[in-house]
Amino acid sequence: EGDAEVDVDEAMRSLPSHQQRKVAKRAKFLDKIRVASLSATKRSPSAKKRKSAKGLSASSLDFATLSATLGEVGVDTAVLKSGRAKRKNGPGTLKRQQRLVASESDRLRAVLAHPAFRADPAAAVTNH
């Protein structure tokens, strides 16, 4: 068990800070759920009856399935293997980037040549 804790600590340190915060928040949330479910099962029967008269009681909610649905607090293995999350946005290949630059340049030339833009650029941009 000690080795597992060391591995988790190492994995946490290798993550970016925003992912460390995310994992920490999830751990806190799951701890709160566990505490709430334990306190709900320890309540006296009279407290349960009073609670049920108002509506759903905490003991009627199934926190075990909720915590199972949320998943265990851990580290994304895809992020650990590569060291970083893969970049998803951007033009990608050099050829795509060149095509994007060419199309955007054509678009800019068309805007600059437009008579409405030549007459009053600020109004043309505002109206568009």
UniProtKB/TrEMBL annotation:
One GO term describing the cellular component: nucleolus
Tagged with keyword Cell inner membrane: no
Location within or outside the cell: Nucleus, Nucleolus
Organism superkingdom: Eukaryota
Region named Disordered: 1-23
One Pfam assignment: SLX9
Annotated signal peptide: none
Transmembrane domains' residue ranges: none
Gene Ontology annotations of biological process type: maturation of SSU-rRNA from tricistronic rRNA transcript (SSU-rRNA, 5.8S rRNA, LSU-rRNA)
Main location: nucleus
Keyword Nucleus: yes
Keywords carried by this UniProt record: Nucleus
Family to which this protein belongs: Belongs to the SLX9 family.
Protein name: Ribosome biogenesis protein SLX9
Organism of provenance: Micromonas pusilla (Picoplanktonic green alga)
